[in-house]
């Protein structure tokens, strides 16, 4: 049996992580029935789509128009509100099959197709909504794949940020997202989806564990993993990981560390 998690860890920590490969490996962990052949077919589909981009496309505006025509209109990639309720909307192989997904997964399709076609493309992780940009990031030639590739202006980006945060757009929000950062955000979405579904705690657990394999991740995810282990009945392992996390927290938040130790003690008591 292929060790998808090991492959994910190796890809995530390589010199140039491949975004499509990482996203497909997330899908392989989510769906034990997937094979390497299935992942290869997904890569072939991305290659096929890239081959349909008009040859000789030049300029940011032309790239937006070409990808919008191909992916949004002809191929039907777009999103609807109901997609937020489906785990499949966060799995690249399913998004390629269904032509539906969350904004960030539809953006991954755009990024990978455009990159293969030679476009100067990047992802932009605005608060609450992921979009893609073309050309010089300072020019803000943006498109919204969730809306079928609708062109966006700087004002549109500001409105998205204000609606999501109530604050003005900060220039740091316009930095192109790296592949590991995009994958971490995808895994955060999966964790959020599973959090409201206690019966899917197994999904939350593997999403946390994949996040911990990324080269950069929030330290608190270690505590979240420990809580999930306790929730799933692995009281001893969960308690031990809570105590390990409490030791880390001693130097920064002693009161929080003590609260975590009490939680670990309560988890151990569940064995009695």
Automatic annotation (TrEMBL):
Coiled coil: none
InterPro entries attached to this UniProt entry: SirB1_N (IPR032698)
Domain spans labelled Protein SirB1 N-terminal: 60-188
Stated family: Belongs to the UPF0162 family.
Protein name: Protein sirB1
């Amino acid at each position: 049996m292929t060790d998808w998690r090991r492959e994910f860890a190796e890809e995530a920590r390589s010199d140039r992580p491949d975004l499509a490969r990482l996203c497909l490996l997330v899908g392989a962990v989510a769906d034990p029935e997937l094979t390497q052949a299935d992942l290869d077919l997904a890569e072939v589909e991305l290659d096929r789509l890239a081959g349909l981009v008009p040859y000789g496309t030049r300029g940011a505006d032309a790239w937006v128009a070409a990808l919008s025509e191909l992916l949004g209109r002809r191929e039907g990639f777009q999103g609807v509100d109901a997609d937020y309720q489906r785990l499949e909307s966060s799995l690249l192989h399913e998004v390629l099959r269904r032509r539906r997904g969350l904004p960030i997964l539809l953006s991954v399709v755009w990024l990978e197709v455009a990159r293969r076609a030679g476009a100067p493309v990047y992802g932009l992780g605005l608060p609450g909504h992921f979009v893609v940009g073309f050309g010089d990031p300072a020019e803000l030639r943006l498109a919204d794949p969730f809306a079928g590739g609708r062109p966006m202006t700087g004002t549109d980006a500001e409105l998205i940020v204000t609606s999501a945060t109530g604050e003005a757009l900060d220039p740091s929000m316009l930095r192109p997202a790296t592949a590991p950062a995009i994958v971490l955000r995808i895994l955060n979405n999966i964790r959020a989806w599973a959090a409201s579904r206690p019966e899917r705690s197994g999904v939350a657990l593997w999403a946390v564990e994949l996040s911990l394999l990324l080269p950069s991740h929030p330290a608190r995810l270690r505590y979240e993993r420990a809580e999930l282990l306790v929730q799933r009945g692995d009281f001893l392992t969960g308690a031990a990981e809570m105590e390990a996390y409490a030791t880390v927290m001693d130097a920064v938040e002693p009161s929080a560390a003590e609260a975590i130790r009490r939680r670990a003690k309560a988890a151990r008591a569940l064995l009695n």
